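Reminder to self: tokens first, then the designed residues, so the page reads top to bottom the way the pipeline ran.
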């Protein structure tokens, strides 16, 4: 059986050594030494000023909205995981969808600008598959309209753009360290900012709004534990190797699949220091995609329609806002299996099934 992803696990002894320390100290959570050490290492690795380790990547976005005082209207992308838009609705803000660019699958700055109203307070954009949003154009729009710019960087760990981490862009970036992500802490996430004032708020809001016995504001519980931090400390040194192995799998897929010219891939800028977080393929139409998906699952090879459906089409959304590009791309995308130890034989086999099926449904 081949799943679309497989969680990387570090050597068990390394994890056990950290757990031994937890048993000795008997501090399990609340900014213990492992949480602080993970935050220190992640700040160094990403080259960012402030980073707050959180319980997951969804609550990280929630805290980011609160820390930036965003509660009215947010312009966001329909081509993302549902967490991105759900947070906006959960916070009772108006959600405005701006369609995506068909090349990068990231939010289209022109569409963003066209949807700004006096209520708009923020842009919440996702670096889909780790491919950077149009960061300069979005920063320019945000500055001209005094909007906050928040990046859902759940896929962006290990990506560098213009010599700096993609997670260092925007007023705030968030990340997910869920077990299915490239770098994980079982469950977990982070909020990243270079702004001292925003950082001070995030720190309070992450922990009920209190410090010691003093209460300063409302807040929520977005902390994470020593056990999760231990997993992160074990995994972080392996990130370069994990990315390298994914690079090799992607190169093999590219060589086998792309010459046919039937499938397309997102445009990944040549100069980008990329993380190979996913391997999305866009088929000619939904029927062809479905045929490939079925043919693979018959062989117990599991793909994922990531992202499907386009979030603007979910029937519990307050109103339907058309996003034709996102709806079209979401209907015919499939992410093929990709993980650190996917064998070359398996990639060959997957590519062969994909090509045979595509020919039948051309
Ligand atoms: C995984 C993911 C999230 C949510 O992260 P969790 O840690 O699972 O809460 C948010 N946005 C995107 C784009 C994701 O892929």
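Designed residues (362 positions):
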């Amino acid at each position: 059986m081949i799943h679309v992803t497989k969680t990387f696990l570090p050597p068990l002894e390394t994890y056990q050594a950290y757990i031994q320390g937890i048993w000795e100290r008997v501090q399990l959570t609340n900014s213990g030494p492992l949480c602080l050490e993970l935050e220190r290492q992640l700040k160094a690795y990403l080259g960012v000023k402030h980073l707050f380790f959180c319980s997951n990547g969804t609550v990280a976005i929630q805290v980011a909205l609160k820390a930036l005082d965003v509660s009215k209207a947010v312009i966001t992308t329909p081509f993302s995981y549902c967490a991105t838009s759900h947070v906006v609705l959960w916070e009772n803000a108006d959600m405005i969808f701006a369609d995506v660019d068909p090349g990068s699958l990231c939010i289209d700055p022109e569409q963003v600008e066209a949807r700004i109203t006096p209520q708009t307070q923020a842009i919440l954009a996702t670096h889909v598959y780790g491919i950077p949003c149009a960061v300069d154009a979005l920063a320019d729009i945000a500055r001209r309209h005094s909007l906050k710019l928040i990046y859902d960087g759940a896929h962006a760990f290990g990506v560098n753009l213009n010599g700096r981490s993609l997670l260092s862009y925007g007023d705030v970036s968030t990340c997910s360290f869920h077990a299915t992500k490239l770098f994980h802490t079982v469950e977990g996430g982070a909020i990243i900012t270079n702004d001292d004032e925003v950082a001070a708020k995030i720190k309070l809001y992450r922990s009920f709004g209190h410090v010691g016995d003093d209460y300063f504001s409302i807040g929520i519980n977005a902390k994470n534990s020593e056990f999760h931090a231990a997993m992160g400390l074990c995994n972080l040194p392996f990130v370069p190797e994990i990315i390298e192995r994914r690079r090799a799998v992607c190169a093999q897929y590219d060589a086998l699949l792309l010459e046919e010219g039937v499938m397309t891939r997102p445009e990944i800028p040549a100069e980008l220091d990329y993380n190979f977080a996913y391997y999305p393929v866009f088929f000619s139409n939904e029927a062809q995609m479905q045929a490939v998906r079925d043919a693979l699952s018959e062989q117990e090879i599991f793909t994922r329609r990531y992202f499907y459906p386009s979030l603007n089409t979910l029937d519990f959304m307050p109103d339907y806002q058309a996003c034709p590009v996102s709806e079209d791309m979401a209907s015919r995308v499939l992410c093929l299996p990709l993980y650190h130890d996917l064998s070359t034989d398996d990639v060959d086999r997957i590519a062969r099934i994909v090509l045979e099926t595509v020919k039948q449904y051309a």
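The two ends are 27 Å apart (CA to CA).
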